């Protein structure tokens, strides 16, 4: 059976601390750039969806369009039985 030496444990702890602080520094340097890139892409996607929604609704002057929406009113009367409860003192 192998035993952990004090030198090996200290080396592992030092590596973990260096990796932690290294990631912390890299996050501070590249975090704002990454966030800027993600917000730019999200803005482009929202703009594209907005333009797709707006284009079909544009019409020529004087043209009238009426869009009817079908309304489904599906109420199921066979949901269950109503039970009246009485409060007991």
What does this structure look like?
It contains one helix and no strands. The protein is mainly α. The model has no long low-confidence stretch (mean pLDDT about 85).
List its salient traits:
single chain, 89 residues, mainly alpha, 1 helix
Q: Tell me the number of strands.
A: 0
Radius of gyration: 32 Å
Largest sheet: none
Helix tally equals 1
The amount of helix comes to 55-70%
Which ranges are low-confidence, i.e. pLDDT below 50, for 5 or more consecutive residues? none
Strand content bin: under 5%
Mean pLDDT: 83
Order of helices and strands: H
Task: Compute the separation of the termini in Å.
Answer: 71 Å
The geometry reads as flat
Q: Which structural class fits the helix and strand makeup?
A: mainly alpha
SSE map:
Blueprint: H1 6-54
Compact overview of the structure:
This protein has 89 residues and is mainly α.
């Amino acid at each position: 059976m192998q035993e952990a030496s004090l030198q090996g444990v200290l080396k592992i702890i030092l590596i973990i601390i260096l990796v932690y602080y290294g990631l912390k520094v890299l996050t501070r340097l590249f975090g704002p750039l990454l966030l800027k890139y993600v917000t730019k892409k999200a803005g482009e996607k929202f703009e594209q969806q907005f333009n797709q929604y707006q284009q079909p609704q544009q019409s020529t002057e004087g043209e009238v369009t009426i869009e009817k929406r079908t309304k489904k009113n599906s109420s199921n009367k066979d949901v269950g039985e109503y039970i009246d409860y009485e409060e007991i003192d």
